[in-house]
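Q: Hi! First time asking for a complex rather than a single chain. Here are the components, and I think there are three in total. Is that enough to go on?
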Amino acid sequence: MKKLPRSFYTRPTLLVAKDLLGKILVRQIGKIVLAGTIVEVEAYLGSKDPASHAYRGKTKRNEVMFHEGGHLYVYFTYGMHFCANVVTGKEGVAEAVLIRAVEPLEGIEAMRKNRRFKANRVDEVTISNGPAKLCQAFRIGREQNGTDLLGAEIFLIAEKPIPKSSIGASPRIGIAKAKEHLWRFFVKGNRWVSR
DNA sequence: CGACCGATTGACT
DNA sequence: GTCAATCGGTCGG
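A: Yes, that's all I need. Here is the structure of the assembled complex.
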């Protein structure tokens, strides 16, 4: 049960993305603890990546992407959804990894309550098998943008690594540009992986 | 300014 | 499978 150190996040983004698989996302809300295993991610490489929010430089919205690795970048999209990214690399490097899916471990009933829409349609898989779904379940929104992942509110803990043979790669989902890159990584066969 | 559209989801045919 | 929801960012005039 060890919190990942800053040095985990400041490494090259594609490396961090693959290593995030299998790590446990922990969210403390007062006395409530929510936790889940990360099973699907996508890397966004800032200035090198036309699909990244930071491709055209720093703005008010994407400024957290330029922070030192180990912060949380939360953005609002489609007029109703939030998505959470782990910022990677050194200060000034606008790279991040989108957390696309987690397998719930702890606080599952609280997560279910946090989800909007008809609760009877939220089963154990759909509770957190997508980037905006897990943000609802973990109560991550505007206020969590910029959160330091070395703090007490939101952090990651190490687990035994996923074997390389169990990690799949594919093009990223839902983007129009840079589809040639296989920058989506997921745990093969895991039920919470989206699609 | 105005028009367009997005790192998505849930509802419905 | 198709489509609306809903709003802030981005880009063109």
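A: Helices of chain A lie at 6-9, 13-20, 108-114, 131-137. Let me know if you'd like any chain examined more closely.
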